[in-house]
Amino acid sequence: MISSEPVRRAILLVEDNPIDLDLTRRAFARSQLVNPLEVARDGAEALAWLARWEAGEPLPLVVLLDLKLPKVDGLEVLRRYREHVLARTVPIVVLTSSAEDCDIAQAYGDGANSYIVKPVDFDKFLEVTSQIKLYWCLLNQPPSANPPIVPCSSS
Q: Which pTM value belongs to this model?
């Protein structure tokens, strides 16, 4: 039986800090996010998603990427996603505690779609997650969850 319910694409959260992970989950729950939240707890886990997508798992709607990660840092994850034939089109929002100009410049230079410094205050963090939900989950038109590997013909 085919369901009439739309399939909600997941958000991939790449976050190693258990406190930030819990805050993000609570903030999204409070904003009534209906998209599932997948979690990678370090850069190696984030890169392991590449093989899962190659095997046919749907691409996430958006990746929320911390920069300061164990095993493989967030900027390297960003570069590897942008080099990958499937992952290069996935929107990547850097969500990190770093407000360093060099991190911001490097993230955009490596292909980040957005850069957000995590607020310390929970109420402000709620506002940030509401804005992420509004723009990336409701307003933005993402590429297909299973995009073609070859470009469309120009006719």
A: 0.85
Confirm if 15 and 66 have CB atoms less than 8 A apart: yes
Report helix, strand and coil shares of the chain as percent, to nearest 5.
40, 15, 45
61 phi and psi, to 5 degrees? -65, -40
Q: Are 34 and 8 in contact (CB under 8 A)?
A: yes
* pLDDT-flagged residues of the chain (< 70): 1-7, 137-155
Residue 37: which H helix or E strand, with range? Answer: strand 37-40
Residues 6+ apart with CB under 8 A from 120: none
Q: Measured between alpha carbons, how far is 134 from 52 in angstroms, rounded to an integer? A: 27
